[in-house]
Specification:
The structure holds 2 protein chains of 2 kinds. Helix content of chain A is 32%, strand content 24%. By secondary structure, chain A is an alpha+beta fold. Chain A is globular. Chain B is globular. The longest helix of chain B has 24 residues, at 363-386. Classes of the chains: A alpha+beta, B alpha/beta. Chains A and B meet through helix 6, strand 12, helix 8, strand 14 and helix 9 of A and strand 4, helix 11, strand 22 and helix 13 of B.
Chain lengths: 381, 484
């Protein structure tokens, strides 16, 4: 298992508990990459009907099970998502999206404009209405990954942090036989690429292409505040931003309180490579949008801001399952901003694929070599 | 998308040739030198008066008649302030007091500085552009946790000194001064002069280690004289320095009543059975200073790990950072004291002038460069002598708070490392919340890093894209300076 972020951690957990002998290797510590920069969203509300929503629904159920077995420290909270629309046009779009989601098995209830205040007393007045999604939940992502790894170790997995993989080893038939790290070779007939935003680099070590690109996002963290915001609250436009393929900057407000007190404010999306410098225009827009949604936040002080790089694949679907180009190589990466939420379902699919068992849902849309085929037929980007 | 606002061109504010951030010794010397050289300068500082942490003047209402009594080199400072006053009158320096710069960003060939004003950042906001940037943001005190360090009556050594300089007040009557570094001697002498009893000056390192670098000492006779002066003053006040010792426990229920001082081995591990109680009502403790690098790191300036174990900016002989258009002076390049800061401030300004106006290097610049090298050698020696030994972590107990803001203990950090796979200070923070509170790890950063025990992490700078808390409403306006 290459990668000790939440996806690698979940894969290690399910694989080890299924009886496989698992080693987790990462160039850094547990949760040292995008996982540690995530907000911990376990959302079904922001996904339109299709394979990703199916994966999210399966994952939501798995997270509820995990919350029963992992320590409370992972801060699982099924707080529910509240999506709000500012204009009648926006509400019409949201209503259409919600009816499709309902048909796909999502639970959602319409919230009239005058009922929003009873759910979120501090919301700005004058909104057109919204939808409440009770299945939306949250975890503390770094702790969730760390406790998944710990539980995997309890089930026999070994952890090798601080060891960068420098080569994917293959045998005479071209099949995988392990990885090379700075500390030596780890031999295994199966290598899982759970390296998130570095997924393309590990694929390249195995001689195949996987077009994972970083899509940067900033989060603002306020001073600790009394519980002002009860749900995960975001603007209806967020769904469109998530599914946009544009490299240009998109911002739409996503606001939520945390158990520790600070309010988290997202979400921006832009493809600017691994640029680690603060973008004042981006954080400024996040602040503007959050204050418009919750005027009470205007006076709150922002203590810090951080960024993360979402592992983006061109069709917004993760790469999950065997890579037919290299026998023994499996992928579990490219989840963009949904990796925390989708980790358990991804792990269940990967484990079933490794074991040759019936998958819980159709894995075909997540086929890792789908971009390869597209480029051969000339439809790729 | 309606809520996804499009990129709007912001109206650019007025541009100056040089922005100096920080009006301590280095920034002050830099600003007046640059203005002497004909540059148009903006000097931004969080305080209401120039001088920084070192030259802290008593508040005007206190009617102090001899502020120089608490400072070495006050005449030089007074001369700089007089020059600053003349440049302000002539309009060559715009001195923005009470301005806390929260971020700097590149805009084309310029730098845009964003600042908030007022004690909690709520009074207002300023945005300005500058062609060149000089960072002189100084340092903050380094603290190491030990049982009882959060009890009322335990104060920072530098904090006690600052209290005395700005408020002319003593934190207590019987004060133990402890920690490591030359600052402690100055603090002990100041406190004793102001009327406090100082029953012990507890130094974790030894002064003998300086003797191992005779050439460096020979190049810095001023520092030797200073050491001798402090030694004489300590003797006059009957303060006996206790070296190779540390305060390993604080006693008292509601506030400090006494401390336990233990002997240390070479690695700063306390030797069992050597603890001795000393009664006091205040403990002033500090382990040297740490460069304040938030703005510099935010724009990508490279750092190095200093001999003291903390990150400092990587600078060339012209005090350029690794980012073109950005210079730095003073403690940001490594802790070195006031003389070095004054020298570097002037040298950095001369380097900026040469960049702006061209022309050959001057004899003055060459001389400053030579003094700087000598003083930097001493600073590295000082850093090495007082760098906390690895055994300091043995002072802490499992329930000792390391991060005071978030109440994270040594035990929680050790569990995150040993059982949850935290391998560096960032993941320790993610898994324990250490460093996520009000001070954003400025107090506990060094200690957390050492407890995380990651070699690759040692001496790496902390990242704080916001250099101070910023009201959300100010952030919201930051992209549209015309509204600010």
């Amino acid at each position: 298992m290459v990668g000790a972020g939440v996806v690698g951690a979940a894969c290690a957990y399910y694989a080890a508990r299924s009886g496989l002998v698992v080693a987790v290797v990462d160039s850094g510590p547990v949760a040292g990459g995008t996982t540690g920069a995530g907000e911990g969203n376990l959302l079904v509300s922001d996904k339109v009907p299709g394979p990703e929503l199916d994966l999210a629904l399966l994952s939501a159920a798995l997270w509820r099970e995990l919350a029963q077995v992992l320590p409370h420290a992972i801060e699982f909270e099924q707080k529910g998502g509240l999506v709000v629309a500012a204009s009648p046009e926006s509400l019409a779009t949201l209503t259409a999206t919600a009816s499709g989601q309902l048909a796909a098995g999502v639970r959602a209830t319409s919230v009239a404009a005058d009922e929003l205040g009873s759910l979120e007393p501090h919301l700005a007045p004058g909104l057109a209405g919204g939808f409440l999604y009770p299945q939306d939940a949250q975890v503390q992502p770094a702790l969730a990954a760390a406790h998944l790894v710990r539980a995997a170790r309890d089930a026999g997995a070994s952890l090798h942090p601080g060891q960068a993989v420098t080569a994917v080893l293959t045998g005479p038939t071209g099949a995988v036989r392990g990885v090379r790290t700075g500390a030596g070779d780890l031999l295994a007939p199966v290598v899982v690429n759970a390296t998130g935003v570095r997924g393309g680099e590990l694929a390249a070590l195995a001689g195949v292409e996987l077009p994972v690109l970083p899509r940067r996002g900033f989060v603002l963290v306020t001073e600790p505040l009394p519980r002002l915001i009860r749900h995960k609250v975001y603007a209806a436009e967020y769904v469109a931003d998530v599914s946009s393929a544009s490299a240009a900057l998109q911002t739409s407000p996503v606001v939520e309180g945390t158990q520790a007190g600070p309010v988290l404010i997202g979400a921006s999306r832009e493809r600017v490579g691994f640029d680690r410098t603060l973008s004042v225009p981006v954080v400024s827009r996040l602040a503007t949008a959050a204050a418009a949604l919750f005027p009470v936040l205007a006076d709150a002080r922002v203590l810090r801001t951080y960024h993360g790089f979402r592992p983006y694949l061109p069709d917004h679907l993760p790469a999950i399952g065997p890579d037919r180009r290299v026998p023994g190589l499996f992928h579990a990466c490219g989840h963009e901003g949904a990796g925390i939420g989708l980790a358990p379902a991804t792990a269940v699919l990967v484990t079933a694929a490794i074991r040759g068992e019936e998958p819980a849902l159709d894995p075909e849309p997540f086929r890792p070599d789908r971009f390869d085929a597209a480029s051969r037929t000339g439809h790729g980007s | 998308m309606p809520a996804s606002s499009a990129e709007q061109p912001a109206a650019r504010p007025e541009r100056t040739e040089l922005a100096v951030v920080g009006a301590g010794p280095a920034g002050l010397a830099a600003a007046v030198t640059a203005a002497d050289g004909g540059l148009d300068v903006v000097l931004l500082d969080a305080a209401d008066a120039p001088g920084g942490q070192y030259y802290r003047a008593p508040a005007p209402g206190l009617g102090a008649t001899r502020p120089e009594a608490l400072h070495h080199g006050w005449a030089e400072f007074a001369a700089l302030v007089a020059r600053l006053g003349r440049h302000r009158t002539a309009g060559r320096i715009r001195h923005l007091t009470g301005h806390h710069v929260w971020a700097v960003e590149r805009s084309g060939a310029d730098w845009t500085l964003h600042a908030v004003t007022g004690p909690d950042g709520r009074d207002g906001a300023t945005t300005l552009d500058a062609r060149r940037l000089l960072i002189a943001t100084g340092s903050v005190e380094r603290q190491l946790p030990f049982p009882g360090w959060t009890l009322p009556g335990v104060v920072g050594a530098a904090g006690a000194q600052a209290m005395l300089k700005s408020g002319l007040v003593l934190p207590g009557r019987r004060i133990v001064v402890a920690g490591s570094g030359p600052l402690l001697q100055a603090v002990a002498v100041s406190l004793a002069r102001a009327g406090a009893r100082v029953p012990a000056l507890v130094e974790a390192s030894g002064y003998g280690a300086y003797g191992r670098a005779p050439l460096v000492l020979a190049g810095n006779p001023g520092r030797l004289a200073e050491g001798a002066r402090h030694g004489a003053a300590l003797a006059r006040h009957r303060i006996r320095p206790l070296t190779h010792r540390a305060v390993t426990a604080v006693h008292g229920t509601d506030r400090v009543e006494g401390v336990t001082v233990s002997r240390l081995d070479r690695e700063w591990r306390p030797l069992p059975g050597t603890g001795r109680r000393i009664d006091c009502d205040v403990l002033a403790v500090g382990h040297g200073l740490v460069p304040q690098l938030d703005l510099a790191v935010g724009i990508g300036c490279a750092t190095r790990c200093g001999a003291d174990g903390s990150a400092a900016l990587e600078l060339d002989d012209g005090l350029r950072t690794t980012v073109p258009g950005v210079w730095a002076a003073g403690e940001t390049g490594g802790i070195g004291g006031v003389r070095l800061a004054l020298t570097e401030g002037e040298l950095a300004a001369r380097s900026v002038i040469a960049d702006a106006r061209g022309g050959p290097g001057t004899a003055r610049a060459a001389a400053l460069c030579r003094s700087r090298r000598r003083m930097r050698a001493f600073a590295e020696l000082m850093g090495a002598v007082h760098r906390p030994g690895p055994g300091w972590t043995d002072w802490t107990a499992a329930d000792t708070e390391v991060c005071r803001c978030e109440e994270v203990t040594t035990g929680a950090i050790r569990t995150a490392v040993a059982e949850l796979g935290a391998g560096d200070s960032r993941t320790v923070k993610l898994l324990t919340r250490a460093g996520m509170g009000w001070c954003q790890g400025r107090t506990c950063g060094f200690a957390v890093r050492e407890l995380a025990g990651c070699a690759a992490d040692a001496g790496a700078p902390d990242r704080r894209p916001l250099a101070c808390p910023v009201p959300l409403s100010v952030l919201a306006r930051a992209d549209r300076p015309e509204d600010a």
